[in-house]
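Internal tracking record. Fields below are filled automatically when a chain is submitted to the structure queue. Please do not edit lines marked as system-generated. If the sequence contains nonstandard residues, flag them in the REMARKS field before resubmitting.
Queue: standard
Priority: normal
Entity type: single polypeptide chain
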Amino acid sequence: MSTAARTWLRPSTVRWGLVIAVLALLEFACRAGLIARITMVPPTTMLDAAWQVLADPALRTSVLTTLEEVLIAAVLSIVVGILAGLCLFRLSWLKRLADPILSAWYAVPVFIFYPVMIVLFGIGERPIIAISFVFAVASMVLSTVTALECIPRALLKTARLMRLNPLQRFVHIWLPAALPHLVVGLRLVLAYSLIGTIAGEFILSSIGIGHDIAFSYDNFMTARMYGLIVIVIATSFLLNYLLSLLIGRLGGSVRVLKGVSGG
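SYSTEM-GENERATED OUTPUT FOLLOWS
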């Protein structure tokens, strides 16, 4: 197979080709009237509406509010999830006690706790952040426990021989060795924080992207609705890209530890 053919058959090239083909087909279907404009607008109109949303100070404030809520919920979920995972890893009896609860965590719709969140935190952004936190934290706890259980025993013995204190073990041994498995939890936290925030705003809030999407839908503002959806999708990709960059910066220490353990 020639070099050009291999280039065209790369997974990334095929993936982007499929995305562009679907968007082009959707653009044609909307422009030709095959899809009613009240149902969907062309992708180019969606992009134009997204730009108009970002240019509108009021709507831009909603976007920033949602992003703030997502980041706060994600950071809280990561910190609390890692600390809780460490406790479960160190205390086997606590892990056995928490296993059934964590396993059934996502079987319970978290939005039923919104009245409780209002009583505890009042009306505003804080109940949305609390709901997003509850929705996301379990994935970080489970990923942390799984990551720590996958640390090679050789590294744990090395930490004991070097008489490292708990903080040094966490920073120099546990965190770098567990990082490849923690990545899964970090991505899930970002996804669940975004989902929880948007869904909470959609049905419970008076501000934010979720509320604006619901308002646009109720008032038949189709173009603006899809523009806001484009912003949500772009935000998701951006957060995952930034996370990938961060993991890439930390990847060197992970490879070194893998090499040591492999020896």
